Amino acid sequence: MISLPLAISFDFLTAWEFWIGVGVLAGIYGIFVLGLQLNVGYTGIVNFGQAGFMAIGAYSAIILVVEVGLPFLLALLLSILITMAIGVLIGMPSLRLRADYFAIATIAFSEIVRDIAQNARGLTGGNQGTLSLELENDVFFTDPWFKVSDWIAENVLDPIGLGGREFENLPLLIVVWIALGLLAIGMTLLIRSPWGRVLRAIREDEDAARALGKNVFSYKLQSLAIAAGLGAIAGWFLAFNLQSVSQDNFEPLYTFLGYAILVLGGMATFGGVLVGSIILWTVLEGFRFLDLPLSADKQAALRFMVVGVVLILLMAFRPQGAFGKREEMVLGD
Amino acid sequence: MEGGEAIGPPLGVRAGALDWARRNPAWVAVGVLAIIALLLIIAEGLQPFAQRSVNGLVAGSYFALGAIGLTLVYGILKLVNFAHGDTLTLGAYIGFFFNVTLGLPIFLAILFAVVLVGLFGVATEKVMWRPMRRKRAGMLQLLLMALGLAFVLRNAIQFVAGTQPRALDVDVTSTYTFLDLTIGRTELYVVITGFVVLSAVAWMLRSTRLGREMRALADNFDLAETTGIDTGRVVYITWFLAAGLAGLAGVLVVASSGSLNPNTGFFLLLPIFAAVVLGGIGNAFGALAGGIVIGLAQEWSTLVFAPEWKVAVSFVVLIIVLIIRPQGIFGRERTL
Amino acid sequence: MTDARAGGKPILNVEDVHLSFGGIKAVNGATFDVREGSITALIGPNGAGKTTLFNVITGFYKAQAGEITYNGESIFGKPPYAITKRGMVRTFQITKALGAMPVIDNMLLAAPRNPGENLATLLARRRAVRQREREAYEHAYELLRTFNLEDKANDYAATLSGGQRKLLELARALMTEPRMVLLDEPMAGINPSLGRRLLEHMERLRTEEGVTFLFVEHDMEVVMNHSDEVIVMALGRVIARGTPEEVRSDQRVVDAYLGGSSETDVPEGPPTPPPTEAEGGVQGG
Questions:
Q1: In which domain, by residue range, is A73 found?
Q2: What ipTM was reported for this prediction?
């Protein structure tokens, strides 16, 4: 009698809660990767510090509310500015460098951010970098968000029958995807503008851009700063989603996953980012439904191995990804 | 053929000094190190400084081994090999397998680790890099492939071996004391092994024809190809050596630090990269020197900062080098 | 060191410039000036350092010594984009048409003073942006028409033939509304009738708008019949200058061409600042 080593569970069709969660992750990382696309796909700079920017965005927003006592929206706004400023700071010494050097410099930056989050107790307080979102008794950083979320649940979802417990996270899904959609449209318009035209020229041939009077360095800085801002926004949504932040949410792993999304969806297309993110997270999380006789650790490792293999194969045989154009893969040639 | 110095208007003493500094970067580096050392000795005392220096040499020996490999394949790949750190991890786990799981003595385990990881390096060349070179793949493609490989490697190791920390079957308690300085017995072996291998590799690179060819390849692949070097053969040998050294470094790291997990190698990539850039990318001797300097710098920093910030030191060194002298100590200022 | 001919003040002054890389002296005390409103040819055997000198003048290489003055202002050591913004534009020996972008985009990129290229004004001054784009489109089409490229406006530049790409690069350079244009072998690879059109356009710009042209050329017919002045380089320095007739009969020039072997004495470096590996070293060219 041969027993099947793998059993696929078909519960997933009805596990709303699970799939809403996947949708939220896809949305958050969609915003995250919009920044990567601007950098890699349109400017030709290989930013591996995006997880670091996400961390700065999340931590600074929380700290500004919890420790400094700023109003919610102001804190969110300031956290974007802080993250962008740090992006510029990091960019100044490192953007003169070649793509792969810059990549490693940004990984270093991202790791330093994590180091600081983990070790600078004075700043991040908490346990090994896990930041408490609580201001005082029962008052949380995420309270204003929940007001919005509850409002949506009551006034939009309940009336159409989606008010149940399993749809708890639906408001977040909606808000994240609206934000993602608006940002994606904004970025697309930006890249089609004369400013975006300069970026695209830089990606293809920096010297040609210089010869035409463009200050290449300044444009690269701007591109990095914008990506940092997008990373920060993704950071807040992550905080809303997890309702806590810890430095392991910002491991280089997540930047690498971002690149997998980038490659899947294709270079030089913001729309592709959305598709790539959905595909990646569906597959990654969908794995959970394969009842493999393996421990959780091993399953996680297997999932990521598959991501790595897919990345290698795509680069070898279809580097432009699903929706990219072949001409766009010109970096470094 | 007109060679000669650039003729410029008289620029004064200060500019002359800067110019000398530009042309003698090694001495400047030595000078900077000496000044820092002096300051630390004055501030913290000779014994603590010397003790840290001993620790620094231990770390420096495996950084140097990793750095030489990274710099050698740089010329072949035309980029920094992201998967190099995980190659170290691979070596460490193979060493663990032979040493702990199979119970072989550590030196035998090291041998297996070096050879098997070396062969792995050769395999990646044959299966991945050579075909991509033939396809004239761009840098971004290669970079992402290296990234993918790093991912696969790290997670494959995790899949097979799990995430719990491992340790090698080595003596972690006995120490030697000499002149008021302590060094663990295993650490001493690590340093000795490291330096012996480094010397052998340095000799090979400098004095044998193969070594010269490898250096030429690492320095400027296309130029080397035109000078009649049998690049196919040399490339494979370079990969074997680079990966093998990484594997060795991996085992040595775990032997001296006592703990191994799937992320060990990746976290060493930063100091190793800092060492490579410091020494001048593409330059094997530079990588050697760079590795030792980074090892020392990291340990010296613990005299002043808390130990958690050790890795930040590499980062700072990296940034400083990239700002002041991006070609590193031994790199050439211009490429033709 | 002023060798300016009567009738035009020098717009570009190169004085005692020196550059070596890798132990080779590429530019060895080059000194000359270019009269405003002239069409000046820069000639010399292969390896004389002409393209290298172009790279130095336009800021792609930094010389080790010397002085370069453009329009009364020192441009020694200034970055390329700053020099282009001051009205000096160049073309490249190996064309740098942006293949992954349409021809018209290549042209639009070159339009100077475009508020749309600045993030702040892009968002704040919408009307000015739209207007400048419209103007740029018109100017671009005009130039494309002159060079017979208007039909290809919406095609990717990579689909152009070699000669067409050269013309695009020239059109693009003219789009920047320059006061001085440095052309690196503009005639190479273009068929004679188009080449003639190019020269007519250059001469017209020179006469009507006082634009100065300095070009490197090997085609002696062009040099002799279409330039006002000729500067001759060999082994990294200027060995003769004057009108085409004067130069043609100068013995030193003859010697340089006949005596100099076809082996390069000085490699023409790549048109990027010779940076370190870290900064992205060897690139095209």
A1: 24-130+138-251
A2: 0.84
